[in-house]
Amino acid sequence: MQDVVRAAVASLEQMSTRKDRDNLARFGINAKNALGVSMANVQVLAKRLGTSHELAAALWETGCYEARMVASFVDDPALVTPAQMERWCRDFDNWGIVDTVCFKLFDRVPHAWAKVEPWSKKKGEFQKRAAFALLASLALHDKKAGDEQFLRCLPLIEQAAGDGRNFVKKGVSWALRSIGLRSPALRAASSELAERLAASEEPSARWLGKEALREFKKKGKQKK
Question: What domains, with CATH codes, occur in the chain?
C-alpha cells in the first residue's frame, strides 16, 4: 500500500504546475502541503486508482492537499465510519477540501445526516463550514430525503446566520439556497427564513438573506 501511495504522490508532483499553485491562493485556498494540481488532474489520477477504502485512508494520512482530494474520490462511502468522518473533519483547514469531501464522499455516507447538527455547533471555521457544505450536498444529491428532513435543518441555518466568518457565512448561504431550490414547499420555507434574515441587524445574516432571495428570484424567472 505504501508503494501505491508513494507512486500516487509522485504522479501528483509530476502534474503540479505554477499556474495551479497560484490558483490556490487566487481562490482563497490556504492549503498546507499543497503541490498545485488542477481538479481535472486530481480526478484523472483518482479514476486510474479506482475505489479503495484502505488507499483513501493512506492518502489522507500523507497530509498532502491533493492526495487528500484524491482520497475523497477513491474512498468507498459504504465503508466510511462516523469516527473517520470526525477525524477528517478535525483535519479540515481550507474550504476546498471541506467542499470536495462533503460533495464527493460524505453526502453518500450512511451517517451523513447524523453529522449535520453536531458539526453546526463546532467552533472551528472549517469544521463549522463542513456542517453546511454537507447539508447543501445532501440537498443536491439525496433524492430519497423528504422535505421534513431539510425543514428540521432550517433552524440550524438561522442559528449560524450571525457567524460573520467568511467561509462559514458562504457555507451557510450555500445550504440555504440549495434547500430552497429543492421543492416548492422548501422554497416557501427557505424564502420566509431568507426574508427574516434580510431584515436582521446582523450584517452576515442580512447578507445571507439577500443572497438567498436573489437566487430564488433568479431561478423563479428562469423557470417561467
Answer: 1-75 (no CATH), 81-224 (1.25.40)
